[in-house]
Amino acid sequence: MEQAFLMAGLMAGGLGAFIGLAIAIVANVVVLPAVLKAQEDGFVMGRKTELATMSNETLARLTRFFYRVPMPIIFAFVGFFAGLKVAGGH
Question: Counting beta carbons within 10 angstroms of the beta carbon of residue 82, is it exposed (0 to 12), middle (13 to 18) or buried (19 or more)?
């Protein structure tokens, strides 16, 4: 019984991690181009701004990096633990 409960939690966690990765992929495909376009046009958080500390190319490179590397990892971890909680795991 204990082993079945553990497996159900791990399966739910795996499903949550998969959903987190799917959300990150959709963000990469749908949201990232819009964010890069807004940055190129000079809009940050809906306001016209000028970034004096870095160039537009550096900002775009950093944005792509964060959308493609840390964001999927973070979303997968959060999804895994959310799946565990939904399944009643600890």
Answer: middle
3-class secondary structure, 43:
strand
Phi, psi at 42, each rounded to 5°: 95, 15
Residues 6 or more apart whose CB falls under 8 angstroms from that of 70 comprise: none
For the chain, the domain total comes to 1
Residue 87: phi, psi to the nearest 5? -80, -5
In a domain, 36, yes or no: yes
Domain of 44 in residue numbering reads as 10-86
What one-letter code names the amino acid at 58? T
In order along its 90 residues, the chain shows pLDDT tens digits of 677 767 888 899 999 999 999 999 999 999 999 999 988 887 766 677 777 788 889 989 999 999 999 999 999 999 999 998 988 766
Distance CA 1, CA 27 (A): 39
Q: Is residue 41 part of a domain?
A: yes
